[in-house]
């Protein structure tokens, strides 16, 4: 893949993640409500300039959303024009197709502040992020077996380090889940999700050997749990969902530990066979 396209794919994934976190912060502060009565304008001079911090947050979120949308769209067009890997093109196309619906849902979060709409908005964003994250993982796919094993172990190590922090930051359980804590929680959660997706993708090549299938399944299952926790987190205020969040995070940790064990043991066996064969 062309180096420029690879960079664009990576930037698309990073911007989409940043936009999601900014969206969580915007919703948690209620900043969108400052523009509810005048959308697509806002308060301030001619409805075009922020009048206070809340309207600035809303306007900044819109700016980042516009930039991200154009970057994802441009990356998708570039990928198809250059004939990139079919998986990359389809993942980007799927994300791009959802952009108009996400714009509509974004407008509804301002004009109709309801949790069902907020949940749909974040859920759609999660699907879009999954598309660009998968495209990024495929774009940066390791070229050799050894590199694949090293990157998989690194991704699993990153996820295993992030998940305990997510456990501590479980919504409305151990700490006050204010706007800043929410931004941190979702930043780390999306990072863990990306690492697990990458591990699942990079475990697919045959070069990883006997570890590929169980490792891929364990990593993918952990990724699914993490993104589900992030979506559910928009609804957690107490009671049953708190226990679900804590239990889900522990489950994800268990899956990552199992994946790490498979990658370490089987990977070591593969290395040992390679050394033996070279003798």
| Order of SSEs | HHHHHHHHH
Task: Please identify the structural class as seen in this structure.
Answer: mainly alpha
Low-confidence regions = 271-279
Number of helices: 9
What value does the average pLDDT take?
87
Taking the sheet with the most strands, its summary is: none
Measured on Cα atoms, how large is the radius of gyration?
20 Å
**In whole angstroms, how far apart are the ends?**
36 Å
What is the strand content? Answer: under 5%
Total strand segments: 0
Query: Percentage of helical residues?
Result: over 70%
- Count of all domains: 2
Broad shape? flat
Quick overview:
This protein is an all-alpha fold. It has helices at 3-29, 53-81, 86-97, 99-111, 115-139, 145-168, 179-202, 212-232, 240-278. Helix 2 (53-81) packs antiparallel against helix 3, helix 5 (115-139) packs parallel to helix 7 and helix 6 (145-168) runs antiparallel to helix 7.
């Amino acid at each position: 893949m062309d180096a420029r396209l690879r960079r664009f794919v990576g930037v698309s994934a990073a911007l989409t993640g940043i936009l999601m976190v900014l969206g969580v912060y915007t919703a948690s502060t209620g900043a969108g409500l400052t523009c509810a009565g005048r959308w697509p304008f806002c308060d301030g001079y001619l409805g075009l300039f922020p009048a206070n911090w809340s309207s600035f947050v809303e306007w900044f979120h819109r700016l980042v959303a516009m930039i991200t949308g154009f970057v994802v769209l441009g990356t998708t067009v570039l990928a198809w024009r250059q004939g990139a890997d079919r998986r990359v093109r389809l993942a980007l196309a799927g994300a791009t197709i959802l952009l108009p619906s996400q714009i509509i849902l974004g407008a509804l979060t301002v004009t109709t502040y309801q949790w069902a709409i907020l949940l749909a908005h974040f859920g759609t964003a999660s699907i879009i992020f999954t598309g660009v994250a998968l495209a990024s993982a495929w774009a940066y796919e390791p070229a050799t077996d050894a590199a694949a094993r090293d990157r998989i172990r690194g991704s699993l190590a990153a996820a295993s380090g992030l998940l305990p922090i997510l456990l501590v930051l479980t919504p409305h359980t151990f700490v006050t889940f204010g706007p800043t804590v929410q931004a941190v929680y979702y930043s780390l959660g999306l990072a863990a999700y990306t690492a697990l997706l990458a591990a699942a993708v990079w475990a697919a090549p045959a070069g990883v050997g006997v570890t590929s299938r169980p490792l891929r399944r364990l990593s993918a299952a952990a990724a699914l749990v993490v993104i589900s926790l992030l979506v559910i987190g928009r609804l957690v205020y107490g009671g049953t969902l708190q226990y679900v969040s804590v239990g889900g995070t522990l489950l994800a940790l268990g899956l990552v530990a199992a994946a790490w064990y498979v990658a370490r043991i089987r990977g070591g066996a593969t290395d040992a066979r390679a050394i033996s064969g070279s003798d």
